[in-house]
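Journal club side-thread
Mid-discussion, someone asked how the predicted structure for our own chain would compare to the paper's figures. Pasting it here so we can look after the session.
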Amino acid sequence: MQQAWVPLLLSLKVAGWATALNLVLGVAAGLGLSRWRSGARDVIDSLLMLPLVLPPTVLGYYLLVLLGRRGVIGAWLDRFDIQLVFTWQGAVIASTVVAFPLVLKSARAAFEGVDPQLERAARTLGVSEAAIFFRVTLPLAARGILAGGLLAFARALGEFGATLMIAGNLPGRTQTLSVAVYSAVQAGDDSTANFLVLVTSVTCVTILLLAGRLVPQHTLLRSR
């Protein structure tokens, strides 16, 4: 059972990095979409939400096309001897892409729920836009953003298809929880598979309970 802790720790590291990246990218995108008034906003929003509906293997294929040695980005990174395919960093990128829409939707809904009169009042007092964001807007939207971050962490923790495509299944290096469950089942190791499934399930249920306490469910699912 000791060998089961290695993919658990790796999954926590991958999910942690993916969530941190998504909190930065998702908050920025959510703020932009909540304030942008243009007919193209819905198109951009739909494109950013694609990872939520596309099959994970399709996302993994796209990442391979971009990050592989012959890919647009991968060929450029190869000049600096940077390899992302079959690395835990590649798993972070896969998890980030898959979980990004959860933070984006939650952040956008949270920012749209902030009373604009409070921001206007701050402007009349001569407060800068940056200060308004960090002292007024962000604190008021923090609960929704944090809830989205928790959901993104749970999604990243359980990511399988895109991770397998881009990072592979290398024990001790890129084998995350979900991939380890698949390997254990294929090898007929039911005890390890049951333990990993139990750990994943308990972790995800705990995160969902925390997210539900932070913000009402209808707010998490509200798109516009």
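Post-session note: The chain has one domain: 2-221.
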